[in-house]
Amino acid sequence: MRKLDEIPSCESCLKENFLFKHLTKDENDTVSYVKNCNFFVRGDIIYHEGNRVSGIYCVNKGIIKHFKTGIDGKEQIVRFSKPGDIFGFRSLLSDEPACTTAKVIEDAGLCFIPSEQFIKLINDNAAFSMAIMKMSCHELGDANQYILDIAQKNVRERLAEILALLHKNFGETPDGYLNISLTREELASFVGTATESVIRLLSEFKSDKLIEINRRKIKIIDIQKIKKISDVY
Question: pTM for the full model?
Answer without folding.
Answer: 0.88
